[in-house]
Design brief:
Pfam family, one: PI3K_C2
Domain PIK helical: 235-459
CATH architecture of the largest domain: Orthogonal Bundle
CATH class of the largest domain: Mainly Alpha
Keywords: ATP-binding, Kinase, Nucleotide-binding, Transferase
GO molecular function: 1-phosphatidylinositol-3-kinase activity; ATP binding
Helix content: 25-40%
InterPro entries: ARM-type_fold, C2_domain_sf, Kinase-like_dom_sf, PI3-kinase_type3/VPS34_cat, PI3/4_kinase, PI3/4_kinase_cat_dom, PI3/4_kinase_cat_sf, PI3/4_kinase_CS
Strand content: 5-15%
Distance between the termini: 56 Å
Number of domains: 4
Radius of gyration: 31 Å
Number of helices: 25
Amino acid sequence: MPSAPDEAQAGGTTGTADCPSCSGGKEFRFILSQDISLPLSFRVNRFVPGRTLLIERSAPVLFVECTLYIDGVQFGLSTNTRLKSLGSPYCWNELVTLSAKYRDLTPFSHLAFTVWDVSSGEDNIYIVGGTTISLFNSKNQLKTGRLRLRVWPNKMADGSLSTSTPGKVPKTKREEIERLEREYGANLHTSVPLSLVDISKNKLVIACDPEIGQINPSEHKHSVLAWSWARGVNDREMKPSSVDRKLIQTILKYPPTRTLNVDEKQLLWKFRFYLTSEKKALVKFLLSVEWSDIQEAKQAVALIPRWESIDVADALGLLSPVFQNEEVRAYAVGVLERANDEELQCYLLQLVQGLRFERSDRSHLAHFLLCQITNLLAFFAVVELHDPSHARRYLCTYEMLEDAIMRSVHREEDGFLVWQSLIEQAELTAQLRSIMNELSNVKHDAQTKGKILEQLFSGIFSELKNFSEPIPSPLAPTVLLDGIVPEESLVFKSANYPLCLAFSTVNGGTSKMIFKKGDNLRKDQLVIQIISLMDRLLKSDNLDLHLTPYQVLATGLEEGLVEFIPSISVAKIIQKTGSIKSYLQKCNPDEDGPFGITAQCLETFIKSCAGYSVITYILGIGDRHLDNLLLQDDGRLFHVDFSYMLGEQPHRFAPPSPPMKLCKEMVEAMGGTESEYYARFKSYCCEAYNILRKSSNLILNLFYLMTGSNIESITDKGTSKLQQNFRLDLGDEDAIHFLQGLINESISAFFPQVVETIHQWAQSRR
């Protein structure tokens, strides 16, 4: 446990203030930290591991790495304590002095402590645990005295603003053991002795030098001085040479996930005044700024208003975790305020995730979101409450939303009624969850579960047949639901037996939706959102591929609602009619049309096949089979169930699937690989691919904002796969040749046929 810094007794400017709550006009004295030039110091006392923390380590040799973080960025070098190997508790009682001074600290300063075990040698250093403590309390007073910190097992100390290794756990998250610790004190913290086995032979002991691998102070100072000299150029009229211009244009074409090297950063900083007329250069310039240098950060922020206004795609990039500066993030929010509501709805999911990277709960982004679509924002915030590391942030957002609605911020509607409708929607999903729990206790097939569902609607859930007041549909708030129609509701034959529920509406119609439990619908929600965005991008370029971006809403970590689209799976079509072509002939007959199908229907089918083939390739959608390819009567084909994305596969050791999800049944419906309709299909694929490549930065930024969402697919490897699928290194002509090669490769693939056979066998047993 480290001791907090002692109160400063000398140096700096002192002051006095009256305490209004104290009788007799008492005074208290204070010293501003900015006036104290003393180095930051504290004492590391001891470390008491838990019962199982070091149980597998025969003879631990520990040291503590101490690091200072200011505004989420490491400040100066880390300092290590001496080695300790005498057993628990590990006592150092060592005074640690850092290079930073008290005057360098900000209210967002943290000390990070990582406990390391080097008993296995320098090549196999073991992380025992880590913890982080803020140096200032909620009143911006420097913490003093003896502190006891919680150590998070097997984690390095996280010095970011929203740390994942807090030394002080919020009261709502403390467990029973901490109550007992407070009640019984030291009696609960007696050391647990380790059993040591004496072996009668000499051991080769490796002494590890903890300074190995650290930055050489002399080299670091030299590089800082060289950097400062190069950054000191302040010529506002300086223009790049032709060589430098080419280099700058190359840098501006980099994807947003690429890290700039030192030379590239120097180049952008050197010609920063020249680049203010190039809106695409702002994000790259801000990436070149050394934000730990206060003066440089001030210069960069002052330059932002002079820059050509950036697009929404670049503004989304400024809300990523890379940019912590509040002025930069506020500027990004200002750009978003100029976008229309329809466009913002395409990005709302990512903007809610962006709250994770804000410094405070009541940020510019949070206030901006309160003015957006309340229905979706409420559900998005509730889902994020399940994430322990950011639950407090989203609880604050939810409370701010409630307060904003109840204060009738939206003047055209009564605030109380709006909030009441959100509560009713939440209660409806809770009742649907209870129904799923009842059905999960019954080990029968889908048909039997369907009969039990009818009994539930006639029994304990009979009130769902007629709502006391109409409830807005969570998927489409403008549609008012009257109640469930049991006769038209059923249980699907699938792994988790989802419910297909029919609701009567106030206008006399029917609205169908699917309730799923046991699937991570946040993935489906993200994929459908991206498909909707891509559909918008294609249509803005005059290419309508007749996509079907149905509605998906996650209401929990493993549950949610899906819009029901009347359709039939390709697997059932082949089972009943023998081929897709026969089905289209039956639904849209035309003796004079191609293959006896109306020309419009065949064109719709070809376009939708092309659209989903390209999109599922770009997003790396896995686990494709004929049961999650659906076809509507008018020829629209679409995909469902996106549990595997960004290159994921359902089986770890399965052979790689073909790059494009194109089955032979689809090609046969187009007349085969030699037909003009198949050639048209390939043409649509290539055109769509190049259109979407032009918006690659927007799509990459949206996925980058999702990196903190705890969706297992969204990793550095996954986003790298997404970037790779765009092939940004190719021109449009080369990209066309590349995609045509992928189509040919996918058509001749054998493995999907094997997978489809296995899947159909598994389905028949359900």
